[in-house]
Design goal:
Layout lengths: L11 H15 L5 E5 L13 E5 L5 E6 L3 H6 L4 H5 L6 E7 H6 L5 H11 L2 E8 L2 E8 L15 H9 L16
Parallel strand pairs: 3-4, 4-5
Antiparallel strand pairs: 1-2, 2-3, 5-6
Length: 178
């Protein structure tokens, strides 16, 4: 991989904050929660880096961050292979834009088609001005279900963040399982 002076290699940590800002901008909800995922046991047997609960228990977005474009398609423990093992309402793959561009001739169409066929969203992280930003390249499809119980204490964090909210009809939402 070669980069120009305007492009830089991004680490997982470099990409977390811009991805969170993208979710707040594009999928904002008053009762949302972000959680960095650090283990392979959360959400199934795949690997994920970030979970975002978008306002309800059936609005769980999970992001797999890849620093290398090549790993997205070829590494069975990373990219689309790992994301296939994760259970959530929306599944996303995030790659640096310059990595995506470097794979343009050989793999971009294949990655885009593979993500679309599997229902995954695709996020590009790029240098923008003096900072780093993320943008949606492909929207994911939704998988119905409540997957929050698979993510340890994420459900509890979301309940605490949304405690006291009211639903339609002004009924207070109460969780009797606490």
């Amino acid at each position: 991989m070669t980069t120009t002076t305007t492009e830089m290699a991004f680490t997982r940590e470099d990409m977390l904050d811009p991805i969170e800002r993208m979710f707040e901008r594009e999928y904002s909800n008053k009762y949302n929660v972000f959680e960095e995922l650090l283990t392979t046991t959360e959400g199934g047997s795949g690997l994920a880096d970030l979970a975002y609960v978008q306002g309800s228990e059936k609005g769980l977005h999970v992001v797999r961050i890849e620093e290398s474009y090549r790993d997205c398609l070829t590494n069975v423990n990373a990219g689309v292979h790992s994301l296939s093992k994760i259970e959530s309402n929306y599944r996303w793959l995030a790659v640096p834009l310059h990595e995506f561009r470097d794979g343009e001739d050989a793999f971009n169409e294949l990655l885009h088609k593979t993500c679309k066929r599997r229902g995954f969203g695709l996020i590009a992280v790029q240098q923008k001005g003096l900072g780093v930003s993320a943008k949606v390249l492909l929207e994911p499809s939704k998988t119905e279900g409540n997957f929050l119980p698979l993510y340890g204490d994420l459900r509890q964090k979301w309940l605490e963040a949304s405690r006291g909210r009211t639903s339609r009809g002004e009924y207070r939402v109460i969780d009797y399982t606490l």
